[in-house]
Design brief:
two-stranded antiparallel sheet, 42% helix, 367 residues, two-stranded antiparallel ribbon, 5% strand, mainly alpha, globular
C-alpha cells in the first residue's frame, strides 16, 4: 500500500481519508489489546505521548502531520516491513537517518571542489543506506513488541529511548541507536566491560551537556536488555556429565561422577543441601533467533541466498551443493521448495584443513 499521502498536503481529501483509515486501525488495535491509551504519531508527540481520545490524535495529525518515516504503523498493531512503494518514497525523500550498522560517522558538509557532483551521488547512496537501517530498527521494534504485552511501561521506556536524540540537536543518533552501535563495536573487537565503561565515560564528557549517553556498561546493558532473546538456564554437573533436566531434574548430585549439584566448601559436604548451582548452562532456543533474523530485511536476504542467488552449476561451493542437502530436499519436497528453509550443520572452528595460511576462513562445514 502506497502511503505517500502521509507526507503530502494536509488539506486534501486524500490526507483526510488516510487519517480516518489510521484512526480506524487504532480503534481495532485498542479493541484487540484492551489498551486504554494510544500513542500519537504526530510530529510533536512522535509516538512518545499517548492519549485516551482518538479525536485528540486525529486533531494532532491534521494540524501537525505525521512524524517522519512512519510508513509502517508498528506502534498501532501493524507488522511487517516496508513495501516496494514505501521504499521508493523513502528514496525520493532522501531523509538522513542514523546508521545502526556503521559506528563511523560520515562528514556531510558540502565541499567546493570540482567533484561536487560525485559527492552528491555518494550522499544519495548514504541516505538510502541509512533509510534501510531505519527500516531495520522499525522491524525490530515491531518484532519485539509482542513480548511486552504484559509490560507496557518497559516497552514505553524502550520506545522513548528509540526516539530520543542522543543530545539536543542531534539528528543522526538516538539514545538507543547510539548504544547499539557502540555495543556492536565492543563485541566485534572483544572489549572488556571495564574498557567499555571507560569509553562511555569519555564520550559522555565529550558530548554536549544534557546528553543521553550512558556512563557505564551496566546502564548500557540495562537499556538493551528488553531487546534480548529468550533463553533458558539449566543446572549442570561441574564435570559436564549431565544436565539436571528431564529425568535428572530432581537429583542433587551427578548420577555418573557423584559430584554435588550445588556449590560446596570443605566444611559443608552435605550433598542433599541446596544452594547456588555449581555450574549453569545458558541455552538460546534456535527458533526465536531465526525469527529475529528473518524479521530484518537485510538479514533475510542472506538467509535466502542459497535458494535465490546461489550459482548452480554442479560445482561444490556451498553445503547446498552437497548430496546430503539434495537428499533432504528429495525426502521432504514441501520443505525443499520453501526458499526460507535452513539446515543446522556441524562445523569446525579455528582449524585450517587445507594448510593455506592466506585463507581468511576460520569455520568449515563437516559434510
Amino acid at each position: 500500500m502506497n502511503r505517500s499521502w502521509m507526507y503530502g498536503k494536509r488539506n486534501t481529501l486524500e490526507f483526510m481519508n488516510g487519517v480516518a483509515e489510521f484512526c480506524k486501525c487504532c480503534l481495532e488495535y485498542r479493541a484487540l489489546t484492551g489498551y486504554d491509551e494510544l500513542y500519537c504519531p504526530c510530529v510533536d508527540c512522535a509516538n512518545i505521548y499517548s492519549f485516551r481520545s482518538i479525536e485528540t490524535i486525529r486533531e494532532h495529525l491534521i494540524r501537525r502531520g505525521f512524524r517522519q518515516e512512519y510508513y509502517v504503523w508498528v506502534w498501532h498493531g501493524e507488522k511487517g516491513g516496508y513495501t516496494e512503494d514505501q521504499t521508493k518514497v523513502n528514496e525520493m525523500t532522501n531523509i538522513t537517518i542514523e546508521n545502526l550498522s556503521d559506528a563511523e560517522g560520515e562528514n556531510n558538509e558540502e565541499t567546493e571542489s570540482e567533484s561536487e557532483g560525485e559527492g552528491n551521488d555518494e550522499d544519495d547512496i548514504e541516505d538510502n543506506d541509512e533509510s534501510d537501517n531505519v527500516d531495520q530498527i522499525n522491524e525490530m521494534m515491531g518484532e519485539v513488541k509482542d513480548h511486552f504485552s504484559g509490560r507496557p511501561r518497559i516497552f514505553e521506556s524502550l520506545s522513548q529511548a528509540a526516539e530520543k536524540p542522543l543530545y539536543h540537536g542531534c539528528t543522526k543518533y538516538t539514545k538507543l541507536s547510539a548504544v547499539i552501535t557502540l555495543y556492536n563495536v565492543k563485541a566485534k573487537n572483544n572489549w572488556s566491560d571495564t574498557s567499555f565503561t571507560s569509553l562511555l565515560e569519555v564520550l559522555h564528557d565529550m558530548l554536549p551537556d544534557g546528553n543521553e549517553m550512558p556512563k557505564s556498561n551496566y546502564y548500557a546493558k540495562k537499556l538493551m536488555c528488553p531487546l534480548g532473546l529468550e533463553y533458558k538456564k539449566f543446572d549442570a554437573c561441574p564435570n559436564d556429565c549431565v544436565l539436571y533436566r528431564n529425568e535428572y531434574c530432581m537429583l542433587n548430585k551427578c548420577p555418573r561422577c557423584g559430584k554435588s549439584r550445588y556449590k560446596r566448601n570443605d566444611v559443608d559436604s552435605n550433598s542433599d543441601k541446596k544452594g547456588p548451582p555449581a555450574k549453569v548452562l545458558w541455552y538460546l532456543p534456535i527458533i526465536p533467533r531465526l525469527k529475529r533474523l528473518f524479521s530484518i530485511k537485510a538479514n533475510a536476504k542472506y538467509l535466502r541466498w542459497h535458494g535465490e542467488q546461489r550459482k548452480k552449476d554442479g560445482m561444490l561451493r556451498h553445503p547446498a551443493d552437497s548430496p546430503q542437502w539434495k537428499t533432504i530436499d528429495e525426502s521432504f519436497p514441501d520443505f525443499g521448495k520453501e526458499v526460507r528453509n535452513l539446515r543446522l550443520a556441524l562445523c569446525t572452528d579455528g582449524m585450517n584443513p587445507y594448510g593455506s595460511f592466506s585463507s581468511q576462513h576460520t569455520t568449515w562445514p563437516v559434510l
